[in-house]
User: What shape does this take?
Amino acid sequence: MAASRSDTPVVIAVAITGSVPRKKDNPAVPVTVAEQIESTHQAFEAGATLCHIHVRNDDESPSSDPDKFAAVQEGLRKHCPGMIVQFSTGGRGRDPAARGLSLKHRPDMASLSTGSVNFPTIVYENSASLVTDLASQMKQYGVRPEIEIFDLSHLHGAKRLVEAGLIDPRPHVQFVMGVQNAMPAEAHLLDILLAETRRILPEATWTAAGIGRNQAVVMDWALARGADAVRTGLEDNIRVTKDRLAASNAELVGLAAEAIARHGRRVATPAEARAALGLD
Assistant: This one.
């Protein structure tokens, strides 16, 4: 685990648009491929070096269209040189059989949830067979997974994937905190998760995502504990304050960069981000 030192750069991951927030909630949320490329380019200029991508249909509903994922990736490769491209394989509104279709385009990374969890209105289902299938596809295409941890047991799901040879012993782990009906955003829970990660996945890199109003406080907890990365963006949080909507993903990235500086650290360059997360 990285220590909290001024010489350890911090990766800023930006989740530009999820499968739930819509333009009616915040007009800054990018939906079309062109909007996503432009919004990510602005975030890249502000210091983001990893982009987490969902794509949408014309009606703004979640899409599994691999061509749309490919088009966003092509735009980012052109306009954001060196940026880490991470596709979502998440399940809200998507057929489980289609969640891995975009992996054939070989992004740098893809999200991988290792267990099921309650969400506000649905059960986010990740059966053992689906997790194994997605991990196998990521290994086949040379895609590095980001392990999404919504519950303590999901860490042990990741350990089983390491033991099966489907992921390497140095996974990148993200703790997701503050989703309604799932893991609360509480500092002592992050300490428990970190302790268990260090025990069973001692080589892992890590970050934490705070959902909604929890975004800034979870980021501070992570930085205080020496996180390798922080996550921000309009997928998780559409507000800067209770009374003000975020103007863009770039604005949220700027706030993340300020938080990193407050903790005596600095923002990673694209090359440093790739090295930190085990990418070429």
Notes: DSSP finds eight helices and 14 strands in the chain.
